[in-house]
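Just curious. Invent one:
>
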Amino acid sequence: MAKKTKGSFSWFQWVPLAVGIVMTPVALRAASIMALSGPESLTLLYPWVDMVKSTVFQMPADFSTSIADWVMYLQFPVYGLLMSRLLRNRGFWVALGVVALLHVVGIGVAILLAHMENPSLRFF
């Protein structure tokens, strides 16, 4: 039997993309529940949406709202696609770590942008 090389095709590498697609409706439902806790809780789930809607970038409200809707629906599939691509070359834990780091950096940038909009806000 021939051994599989590290760059060969495997169906397992597309599982994170499928999970990201399946998680999108679950995350939208969680966002509707988390909205009752305030806008800060939504930053933890959808940091990229907060960045797009930030007034620091001075985008028109209609444009930023439509882009934020797209970002909300595409965030988890993009995470899955990125993880699928990294899974091929780097392994599961590195791919998961990169996606988690990307999300945490997004949360940090969203908090900094919120602070830039209103400097009197406390960080925590």
About this structure: The two ends are 57 Å apart (CA to CA). Residues 13-117 form one domain. The chain has a mean pLDDT of 86.
